[in-house]
User: What shape does this take?
Amino acid sequence: MNTKRTTMLSLMFSCLLTALAGVPQGYYSTTRGLSGAQLKEAMRNVVGEAKVLSYGGGASSTWSGFYQTDRMENNQVRDRYSYEVFYFSSSASASSASAPSGMNIEHSFPKSWWGGNTNQAYKDLYNLMPCESKINSSKSNYAMGSVTSDTGGNGCTKVGVGNTSDGQTTRLWEPADEWKGDFARNYFYMVTVYSDLTWTSNGLDMLDNNTWPTLQTWAYKLLLKWSREDPVDEIEAERNEAVYRIQGNRNPYIDFPNLAEYVWGDSIGYAFPADGNAIDVVEHDVELLREPFLADLGVFSCVTRSGAPSDMWAASSSYGAVANAYSKGKTADDWLLSPPIDLAGMKNVRLSFEHAAGYHGSNDVRDMFELLVSTDCDGVPERANWEALDVEFPAAPVSGNFTKFLAVKDFDLTNYAGQTIRLAFRYRATESKCWAWEVKYLTLMATQDVTGILAPSVADVEMENATFYTLDGACLGQEKPTHRGIYIQRRGGRAIKVYVR
Assistant: This one.
C-alpha cells in the first residue's frame, strides 16, 4: 500500500519555506510582487515551455521518463491510482522503457478536455502518470472531485458521482488521501501553463474558458483544501526535480507550496515573494478582545476600588453587563475591569461597544459613569493611574426610564499602541444618584504588521505566550488550534502565518 512520507514543507504567509534545491537563481524573479491573475500569467511565462518526450514507450519516450520520475528503489513503478504492484522490466533504462503489463499512461487532465490534440499538454510529464489499466478505464475522462457514491473505484481511487457547483451531481473521480495534494498541485500547474487551450467535454465540469481563474470556484476551493491538507513531501519534491531535468521546466506549485494561495486563495492581493523573502510588511486586522457580556462577564472581572471581588456588575442575556445599585445597597464604586491587553506591535487600535443608561432622568451620567484606561494597573484600581476616555454617553431616556443603546464605534486608542493596558467601566452610585448602566458587544481591534518570519509550522515555533487568530482576526486564545488550516500566531510584537497540519 502506498503511504506518504513525513511532510517536509508547510504553508507560510509572505515568505516561502521550501528547499528550492534545483531552482536556478532568478528563475522566478519576474513573478515577484504579483498576485491573482497577473501572478498566474507570469508563472505561465516562466514555466510554460517544456521539452517534452515522445508519447509512449521506447527510446526518449514517456515510459523512459517514468523510469526516472516514478521508479522506486526496488524497481517498482509508483502508481498513484492503484495499490496493485507493478515493476519496470529489468532491461528498462532512463533512455528506453516500455509499459509493464497491465499499466497505461494516464492523463490526469484527460486529453479529450482539449480535443485530443497531441500538443505539449498531451506529452507533459506533469500531467502524465503511470496507472493500472482497469482504473484508468473506469475513471474515464471525468473531472476530479469529491465522490459521494463510489461505484467504480478500486480501494485507492474512487469513481462515482459527486457534487460540483450549485449542488449539481456529475461523474467524478477522487484520488486517495495520500495523493490529493499532489494531484491538486498538478491541476494548478495545468491550468496555469495551458490556460490558452479551449476546454470541452467533461473538462467543463470544473474548468472555464478564461485565463483566470480557469478553475471553477468549487474546483479551486476543493483543490486548495486538498493542497493544504496534503502538503508537499519528499516524493513529490523529488519528482519535480526529475521532471525538471527532463523537460527543463518546473511545477512552481511544488517549489512554492503556498503559491496557489496567492493565485486563488487567501493571499490574493498580497505581493508574492518569489525569492522567499518578505516583500512588504502586510497589515492584518487582529481582534484582541470580544465580549458580548450576554452570558457572563467573560475575561472581565467585577472589583471594588480596593480590588476586592464584587457582584455589582452582572451579565444579562438581553442587556449585557448591567450595573444597578438600587437593589444592592445603592452606594457603589465598582469597576468592570479587563485583563491586561498587550498592544505591542499594534497600530490603529480601536474600541467598539454599545451602552445604555437608566433612571437618571435629565442628569448627565458622566457624573457617575466613566470608561477608563490604565497602563500600570495590577488589578487594584486605586493603585493605578487612569485616564478617562472621552466616549459618547447616552443622554436622557427617550421613553420610560432607559435610553436606547448607543453604539460607540472604533474609538481610537492608538496612543496606547506598544503598551499593555487595562480597560475599566467604573460605576459609581449614591443614595441620590443610583442609576443603571448597561454595556454589551464590546470588541477591541487593532492592525498589526505581519512579516515574513521563517517558521516551518505551528509545531516548530515558539509557543510560550503565543496567541492564535483565524485569518479574519478572531482570537482563538493560547491553545494550539486543533483543526488543520492557516492561522496567525502572535507572540510579543511579531506575528507570523503558520500552517497547522
Remarks:
- DSSP finds nine helices and 24 strands in the chain.
- Residues 204 and 367 are 69 Å apart (CA to CA).
- The chain has three domains: 29-100+177-280, 287-447, 455-500.
- Residues 1-19, 451-460 have pLDDT under 50 and may be disordered.
